[in-house]
Structure formats: C-alpha cells, structure tokens
Amino acid sequence: MKDAKTISRAVINRIPKYYRFLCGLQRNGTQKISSGELASLMGVTASQIRQDFNCFGGFGQQGYGYNVESLINEMSDILGLGVSVPMILIGAGNLGRGIANSLDFGKLGFELTAIFDSDRMFTGLKVRGLPVRCFDELEEFCAVNRPRAAILCEQSGEVRETVLKLTELGIHTFWNFTQYDIDDVFPGITVENVCLSDSLMTLSFRMKNG
Amino acid sequence: MKDAKTISRAVINRIPKYYRFLCGLQRNGTQKISSGELASLMGVTASQIRQDFNCFGGFGQQGYGYNVESLINEMSDILGLGVSVPMILIGAGNLGRGIANSLDFGKLGFELTAIFDSDRMFTGLKVRGLPVRCFDELEEFCAVNRPRAAILCEQSGEVRETVLKLTELGIHTFWNFTQYDIDDVFPGITVENVCLSDSLMTLSFRMKNG
DNA sequence: TAGATTGTTAATCGATTAACAATC
DNA sequence: TAGATTGTTAATCGATTAACAATC
Questions:
Q1: Handedness of CA A62, A67, A73, A79 (dihedral sign)
Q2: Which of A126, B100, B107, B155 gives the lowest tally of CB atoms within 10 Å of its CB?
Q3: Percent helix, strand and coil across chain B, each to the nearest 5
Q4: pTM of this prediction?
C-alpha cells in the first residue's frame, strides 16, 4: 500500500462509491466480481478501478477477480469506518437537525455526541435524543468528552471564530456546511466543505445551458 | 463566449465560488479587483481565474482589472440565477425538510412549489408554508403547474422508478440526495448527485490517514 | 508614454485510459 | 495447459500553470 498521504484526492473521492456498490453486490449475494463487471455496473473504466484499488494494495487474484466480502472489509479499513470518532454538531437550525437526523453516523466512522447552538431559543430541544446545549457549555463538554470532529451548520458569519475556538479545544476535523470556505485557513486541520448552494447553482447552469 | 456545452465540469464547479466571493466583495464596497487580488483572496492562481473567466467572454479591462458589479451580473447570467424554475421536493423526511427550510431557492434560480411524500404520515404537514402532498396528487399537480426540476430526498430504494415517473411528467433536472446514483440512467436528464454519506466517508479517510 | 493587467498561447503537470506481461 | 483477469507500465488526454504579447 502506498502512503495514504500520496493518494490523490480524485481517488479518495471515489472510494466511498466503490464501497457503496460493493455493499449492494453483497446484499444481492454476489461473492466475486471482476474489474470489468464492476466497471460496467458503475459506469467507469476497468482500468480506473484496477489503478484505484492498487493504490491500497493488491486485493485481487489474477484470472479470478476480486472477492466482494474481502474488498468491502479492505475499503472499510481504508475509510476508517470501524473507528468511531466522537463528533459534535454546531448549529441546530433546519439544516443541522436534518443532517443529524438523517445519517447513520455509526456506519460512517463517527458518533454524534452533542449538539450546540448559540441561539438560546434552541437550548434544551431534543434532536435525535440529544439535548441542544448553549455555547457556554462547549468548553467543559470538550474537556470532559474530547470530541475530535465537528459538523458546522451555523447560519451566522462567525464561522472562522468558531473554528478557531474548536481548534483550541482539540477539534481538528470539520464537516463544513456553512457559506464560508475554511480550507487551509488554519494549518493542520482537515476540512470537507459541502456548499449546498454552490451545488444547486451548478445544477442551474447545467440545466439552463445544457 | 464559448459554447456552454464545451465548458469543462471543473470550470463550472468553480463559478459559484467566484460568485460567492464577488458578492462578499461587493458587500464590503469593493468596486474593482484584479485577477491577482482575487486569486490570493480565494487561494487559487490568477492564471486559473483569467482562464475560467475567458470561457465566458472578456469581462476585464487590460491594465485595470475587473469591475466587481458587472462581474457579478455576468456570473448571475451564466448561472441562470435570474430565471426562476419551478421545483418540487420528493421526500419530506428529516433531510428533505432541512433542505427545504434552509436554502433561499429564489436567489439560486429556482422556486420550491410543492412537496410530496409517499408516506401518508406526512400528508398535510406544512413545510416552509407548503403542505406535504401524497403521491396520488403528483400527476395532476405536474400537469397543472409544470415543475421542471426535482429535489430527491427519498429514503426508499424506489429512486429509479420515481425518476422515470417524473421524467414522463416533464421533469428532467434532478438534485439527488438519495443513496442511489442516477447519472446517465436516463438519457437527456441533468443530475447533480450529492451523496452526504460519501462526503463524510472521505472526511473519515482524510482524518484517519492524514 | 509608462505601468499595470488582461487575454491567450505554450509548457507543465496530473489523471485517465490502453496495453500487456505476470500469474492464478 | 489454456483462459481469464490482475497488477503495472506506457500512452493519451485534459486541466492547470507560466509566460508574454496586446492593450487599456
């Protein structure tokens, strides 16, 4: 296996899709698959699949193909899905509640352990069984429970301040749904920006120009 | 301006980000900006900005730079934000409600006109002022109101059937939040897949291997 | 005119695809 | 052994960056 740091973003972004399709195959009872079969199923090239898989090691058997179950296990290990990282949600508005309630964090390598909102209107509201906490509790909660990742769903423009604060409290991984890009703002943090309005604007472009 | 169909996906995906930063500059009262200044603000290269802008036409003035307001207007036109396309939401679960309530569709080139859910438990519930309708009403609603785009937030695996049905009812543009990729499944449709669990898995990988 | 900055061509870089030897 | 399919190298393709002439 290559050093994980050298694997390109393009490859990494494809791994979850492989994982998803392989899980679907397993549910159908498929036990082996060749790169060619998987390629036509997923609408990609067999070359790309073999190149991608070989970033992580030789999972296949020449003349035979890939064993679905062991491939799933490898992918799960690569993605770190078996390691449960405590994660908090910042922002209990519509989008925050929607995300908290709609994902199976346990299957994705995380555990949602707390929800915070600066607006006291939300304090005490139960979201997915967790009480919404006010910001005053943040420091103590982090000291005691040591969350290591945060979902950012704030509406306000205080995102940079929030990230700085959370970084000081030991959180260095951010799943960012706010309007504000935080790539590379602070060295050493890991960020995934999901800008839904950008996504909808590209759809608008493609619909109206396609 | 190049033919829109020849513009690469990489460029299209960057346009909303330019638009977002330019709107921020305008709010600060900035009237002109050079590709170099914008580049350092956004953390990209000036070359890339000039290449991207020139896919759509020469917006700048040599020796001066770009006028922020006219650039915003051009971007808005390119993205089609001024044209309001009627859009419906399929699936009024947690994620569907979160998305319906958290976006300003009017500013993004769409108008949310109806919400449908196959589960009658939701029927009549008001989401963002719109009543959730049952699937029986879908055909008549489309015949009368002619929506042209749909947000897919179903939990079930019936997504392909839903897309086929909507296609027959005149909807060819899909913003897809389900687990099921629908690229190229039906010819002539425009799809933007947003797989949140894929996004979280890539974050898991990068956190745990970075 | 001199300085600045664009628009555009050329060079580089990286990612994808094709080809094929290795091998099960 | 013969057939199939991987792992991996080489070729192609596309996207990004650098360079610079055009021009405001």
A1: positive
A2: A126
A3: 50, 20, 35
A4: 0.96
